[in-house]
Write a structure and sequence with these properties.
This protein is α+β, with helices and mostly antiparallel strands. The chain has two domains: about 1-65; about 70-170, Nucleotide Exchange Factor Grpe, Chain A, domain 2 (Roll). It has helices at about 1-65, 70-85, 95-115; strands at about 115-120, 130-140, 150-155, 155-160, 160-165, 165-170. The strands form two sheets. It has a three-stranded antiparallel β-sheet.
Length: about 170
Amino acid sequence: MMNENENIQDQEFNQAEENVENSASEVDILNQKLTEATDKYARLFAEFDNYKKRTSKEKLDLIQNAGKDVIVKLLPVLDDFDRALAHMKDLEEENPIKQGIELVNNKFKKTMEQLGIKEMQILGQPFDAEYQEAITSIPAPSDDLKNKVIDVIEKGYLLNDTVIRFAKVVVGQ
């Protein structure tokens, strides 16, 4: 009987060892599947986060530049106001026509500033092809004006720090 009990115990022990080995391999398989699922989840989350950032940036750009086409069409009106005021500089300050044009001009400029429009201040600055378009170049009246903007033919404008119209300038050589 001892022998039979030993055989039964050996069989039970061998079966327990097999169960432990099977359990260990099942645990390894489950751990591998868990690692894969975690990795897949992390990638999916990162992809979704990038999508949210990209779409919110696109929305912000769209909102900031929504009226760009209309604003670009209004820029010649600003130029016309500047020309009108330049021709009226000889008129006396009390002239009601001059006062009216100055009032409308100032109001129009403030409205454009509220929309994010900025006039480029480039006279006397070094020439920069990213913001200016050189119409012509002339001999510089002094050495310190070489490669600098001597005259502005048409003003340039920025919309939220993005060029919407390049300044047309004369550059000193």
